[in-house]
Amino acid sequence: GHDRLASVVALGGLxxxxxxxxxxxxRAALEEMTGRHHPExxxxxxxxxxxGLEAASRxxxxxxxxxxxx
Length: 70
Description:
Layout: H1 2-17, H2 23-35, H3 39-57
Helix pairs in contact: 1-3, 2-3
């Protein structure tokens, strides 16, 4: 549902700001988790992830982890 897509958007934003895992790895995990069981939702998950990446990329660069405002 919409809550799941919001979580995937947030994941995209997090990965854009703190690249702790590659974008390709996230896409592969989404395909494995969603695509196998609900292929009709997979494209929506990818679009939500990409929307999070795009939104976060328009923000100012993130500071070091643990910094105020970063």
